[in-house]
Amino acid sequence: MAENSFQIWDDAIHTAPDQVKRIASAKKAATSPSSIDRESKTGVFEGSGKEPYHVTLESCTCGDFRRRKLPCKHMYRLAMELGEFGGDFAKGTNKNVVSHGQIKFEEAVDEIEKLPEAAQRDLQRVFFWNPNPEYMHIREVDDVSKALETCPIVEVKEASLTERLKLMKKTDIIHALKEMSVEYPKLPKEELIQWCVENAPSIAAYAPKRCIVAPAFCVSKLYRSIYTYLARKFDWNNSYDIFRDKEGVFVIPYGAQQVKQPDGQYVYDFPNDEVTDMLNKHHCNRCAGGYVTKARE
Q1: Could you tell me the pTM of the whole model?
Q2: In sequence order, which ranges of 185-239 are alpha helices (DSSP H)?
């Protein structure tokens, strides 16, 4: 086998507009391979169908290669992974792995309903539907976190020493170091924390116990639905409205809307969707039969 097997493709091919698009797709984390065999120079990529794609530097079982007989994004990515085609690429989770690994919304809600109410309320913070990728839900280690450890739609792990020390005042960190008889340099708090992590890890005994709760991989496409379910179940909105000929601020269940009943009276009800279906299934639809409210005094 030649030292660079991808050289079977003429360099001019890679500059064609259609190929440039495939090269760009190959660099994305969403095109990451499931596995690479560097000795045989082959790879396996999750596809949009039931079967994965088997890829070599000369061919691929995907429809794109079968139609065009030119390098597809999987072949380019394999060549990049093997160092036989230039270009930086991002590593991550193949988008099809995400799709294939999902559980149904109904299954997710069934798991939520096994939790005590305090744990369900805590999940609202975890599943806020427009999450900041930098956000971490750090909470106390207690009965709620222990309950969440049993729930397959979240992952609970110990917070890093760095995150735990950030919760302490600098004076408390220094007090702990003195109790440990550890000599420490005079540094700003952020730098002192890093110094402690590297040079005095036993300070963990003085740091508050915290854990990180994050959505599990199996519900990565259900953030908004899960958050909406929990919000409709627990939250309230203040709505300035006209209700039954009275104008004012009304307290209504989150997401409820005014609807007209057959008798001509108005009530508040939830939209007819899968979230409401699950509220009905678990007997926690606050608008079942129509919700009637009064204006705030």
Answers
A1: 0.65
A2: 189-199, 223-234
